[in-house]
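Page 37, top half.
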Amino acid sequence: MYFLGVDIGSSSIKLSVFNAEIGLEIKAITVPDFETPILSPQSGWAEQDPNLWWQYIKDGILKLKHQEGIDISKIQGIGIGYQMHGLVLVDENLEPVRSSIIWCDGRAAEIGRQWYQTIGVDACQNQILGSPGNFTASKLKWVQENQPEIFEKAAYMMLPGDFIAAKFTGVAQTSTSGLSEAALWNFKEGGLANDILNGMGLSEKLIPEVVPTFGHQAIIDSKVASELGLNTQVKVTYRAGDQPNNALSLQVLNPGEVGANAGTSAVIYSVTDQDAFDKNNRVNTFLHVNNTKEHKRNGVLLCINGSGILYQWLRKLMSVGATAPIPYDLLNDLATKAPLGSEGLRFYPFGNGVERIFDNKEVNSGIEFLNFNIHQPEHVVRAACEGIVFAMNYGFDVMKSIGASGNSVKASYANLFLSPLFREIFVNTTNTVLNLYETSGADGAARGAAYGWGYYNSLKEAFGNIKLMEELEPNRNLVNQYQDVYQHWKEQIKIQD
């Protein structure tokens, strides 16, 4: 029996086929062959065409079938991980009425701040554990206020993964964890945050059927099954935002367990059994994938928008005049030639939309203390790596202050964690043990689908054989040195403690 995992990113979509009988991923692909375009009609805006996601996924499934030789008729369930906080508005035929306003779009941040005050800080914190911020509810309100003619055409609001599930099945649904990432879940009462929705003047009719994160959510549409060659009994059995899904992939499920990711954005994700929140909204709390009425599980999330995208920018800059972009391994090696602290050079990894640690304000990136007689390209690359980790560590410190942290961190052996130097900076700045695993969001979504389908009796069973690649421990001497540099970095950006 096979299960398909789909991981919808903002730059690409990954698909994984998992053979549950042997407990292994048998094929993983990425589509399309180029970076998915992000539309920016105005500065600070970021949109994508949801139908492009769907087309890429269909292309990927057909590629698995025709080019990779996978017998996709054996697929029994589909799991979907997706870029969080995006807004997809669809009509009654489940067709988008506008482009999706995606996670890094900052246009609704001011609306979120306004309604945070209008509804009431205490009311928001008691119900949704924070502010509407720049999350999906605020984006929905923006469309209502600024594009009323488009808003009137909408039958449902969805998150990106909900839209793809609807294209597979023809059924409009969202999940409990999805409502929490939209800032529309009442943590106190365990249901839709009606006071927030109604307080913002938004109709409950826009919310589709709410389903659990795991389970038999809906069966595939017969026309889709025929078009793609899938079994007509395939079910969507799991969906979650990318960061909770990444945590699932790493088996970060219980209080005190922490996951990290350094892809396009940088993330620390910690699980707690409390309704913990930061009163300054620098980190945000969402329902974790394994939350139940009997066992509360929330995920506290730090997100720094500039991580891999900063490294990508440096790669482009240093590839000017080259016949092809320089490999990332060369950047990683270059950074090792600069000393710890980068000879005083400081890099601030912002500049990719509004930043939560700055109250959802748009903050530009920057380089400080640059000396043309001292600093070389290697110093710039190392300072960028240090800056990314320092920003992550700031969020880790916030998590500790609200009781949502741990002494060890799990991460996938991918993206910036492929760099030995980045791993050194991370381990010694955060002063935590780092465990690196061979896993991915798409593989996690496929295994989640197998569990949601009922093939496995527990998540532990579904993820029992993910491979530990490496374990790194802090070096006391380096911890002290990195802490000195981190404190200086933090003083310069004057963020709130």
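Page 37, bottom half:
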Amino acid sequence: MLLENKVFEDLAIGDREELRRLCTLDDLIVFANVSGNHNPMHLADHDGDGDGIPEALCPGMFVGSLISAVLGNVLPGAGTLYRSQQFDFLGRASAGDELISSVEVIAKDAATGCVTLKTEVRQARDDSVILRGEAVVEAPKVRIHSDVADLPGLIVQRHRHFDALLDRAAPLPALRTAVACPEDPNSLGGALLARDHTLIDPIFVGDAARIRACAQDLGADLTGIEVIDIPDHALAATRAVALVNEGRADALMKGHLHTDQLLRPAIDRATGLRGGRRFTHVFVMDVPGLAHPLLVTDAAINIAPDLKTKVDIVQNAIDVAHAIGIEVPKVGVLSAVETVNPDIPSSIDAALLSKMAERGQITGGIVDGPLAMDNAVDMAAARTKGIVSPVAGQADILVVPGLDAGNMLAKQLTYISHAEAAGVVMGARVPIILNSRADDDMSRLASCAVAALHHHRVSRKASGQGSAK
């Protein structure tokens, strides 16, 4: 951040500056910890007034602190010190609101070197004033022109969104799931953990001796779980698919075998699980600091999808978003640029997908593209580029150009941003739970929760009851 302050002599009556800030749930958690104000009115998933609805209102002094950011960073800037601050609170802000904080010089006192400023915080969406006041500050005495490195980032809370998924899936009946080859500690342990959380009711298909030996190593009890002994992985996957076709299972889950071994019998035209769309993979990601789950697709199955395949990729992802509670998902179709460039095929596909959604060929969400990664997820970046869109800066779903980009994006979020990822395959008649060997317990549980929620939603629609809320 470049600091260029104004000393007392530089300031003039009428000087004005403002900053924008998107308030997040993490901001409220940080403020609660730093200030010691744990009022449940200001915390997500807490009902502070007993009306049954979590408020997540921004604390008044948090909103007021946005004024200090303008004073300390911009006007007068570095070196400013408070003398006094008066506030009138005229409205409320909530997590997810974008706020504009502004200051304006209204008086100067040469004897004391102090400056009086009118202070104000407004809602960006409608320009309504929620805070108004007046500050008296000591103006900087020395001019400062320097680059200041950004503060270290904070990982405030992990798996908040996955916790919400588990809570959402908790009341549902366990999903009858054929688990192919759970023959190592990760896959068997994950399936048993999901069973213990009543997310799935598993049938194990694979090498019975290896499954039981692994259970013994884990100290796990397999009592009550059917184990079908088929040591060959290809044959075990075929039998797991057959369990779905026989009506004994409502989902398929990957164990300790290669993904292509599991999917090969599932895509068989005669005996597989084809459901009318291409099989596509969806990551549901819990990214620390992001106020909502982020879906990334397709990062695991379709290598270089054509436009027709991308239509299914988008529609399948929208279906997953609906299942996890995003009623109108915002879909950002990614490219290297945010304008259509005939030399970049992904930008053309993105524009076509956007138009197809406008014409009703893709339903259930708002689709926009091409968008570059920055202006798909960051409102400030979108504003800088002059992009006006209900998706830009706030995408729920990111549709990548191809598997290379998707795989890199998902792994960067996981290993650099400390995100957790749940993986499901859509397009089949039943959800296919696709975990990686590196996934932790929460990722495995969340994958099962996503599958259970999707199955429940499809079942309710088929029975005429509508989607689950």
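Margin note: The CA atoms of residues 58 and 376 lie 25 Å apart.
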